[in-house]
């Protein structure tokens, strides 16, 4: 069974020195921070979905050729309430929790009333993000929890709603070269007309006295009304170029009425998401400097997207790459009852799920209104993506398929918003994979019985070429005789140059970032 996915993790609060084999580059100094679900049962209660597990943050610190490991549970309000009650009492996306049966009728009625408008969990298990010089554990709700990136201590909770009118926000922001953070959220309740919101937090937002949250300096860039008023699009990430924010308003939607009544109907919030395969995908371009939305209507067929890879501008076109699915079944794969199957059975069952597909879309910026209808306006030579002018002036886009079977993409972030060649991902059979966009050639690192996490690229300090650096990935195995380790790969050759074996249990994580020593 895939029990290493859903077994309860353990804390390693003090630095644990790893057993390093091979040679770690002397320039690699800093901390790899990772986040993911790590506690799946409390007392006699268990979560129903893998994405519900309480956040367990772990880190790998590189110092003079040595590696030190730490892990701590995020000390969120959700974690504190559940541990104090010795059972799960806070609902998560795939696990709806109801009042204690021992409560009296008035207490129960009050609980039902309070849940009509969900006050979401603060179990921030998806990523580590930065606002100013502060680091936060984040998910997709209105709460984020600040952490100390060195000790992993939880420093306090911030509510987006105290600073900007949103109920939900992504855990995948972008950062520009000045250190400004760009992010997106959704305003669905108590904030007037429902809308998507794009905002930024400047690099100097950190309070030097550590008393005020960085979000106090948040700046609104723009808002975009919903295509369907009661059915906002779900989005996990977005794209950014030098001048534009790219927002894909997909046909994977949240039913607001179902969300508001989920508690009463005894269904989880995850069941309020539905994919409308007969709808279209709208692509919004927003000038990130002026906040103005490009008036051209760009659209594509329905698909599901979680992760953008990169985006850039070239010869009056916006080019953006993402990972798409033909259905929304990925979420169902991670229900715990599915993951309790034998490995072979799990793989066989999930062969029917839509495979992740890396695709490129190209949006022409200068539209020749005199062009005949059904003209492909893409002038770039290195892509088969099309953007066809329709009779009413809208642009129908079809993608160029780059590769199938990759998820959790990462790039050399110095090339974010720029034309690039390489991205790194994890295959659906969980082995790291680099991809050369220009040649469509890929390389593989794989080890039997092992499951690597999202690959993180760290550039060497004097790098000239895009792929000069290393790939870091924490690796777990379903074989209890194989200890977990961090693998370090040469990003150019994809050969293993070192590994740091950890003498304690490590959980499977989701996302994170590398913090160089001079930033900690």
UniProtKB/TrEMBL annotation:
Binds 1 Fe(2+) ion per subunit. Pfam families: RPE65 (PF03055). One of its GO terms (biological process) is retinal metabolic process. Fe cation binds at residues 172, 236, 307, 511. InterPro entries: Carotenoid_Oase. Coiled coil: none annotated. Its cofactor is Fe(2+). One of its GO terms (molecular function) is metal ion binding. Keywords: Iron, Metal-binding. Belongs to the carotenoid oxygenase family. This is Beta,beta-carotene 15,15'-dioxygenase-like. It comes from Sinocyclocheilus anshuiensis. The gene is bco1l.
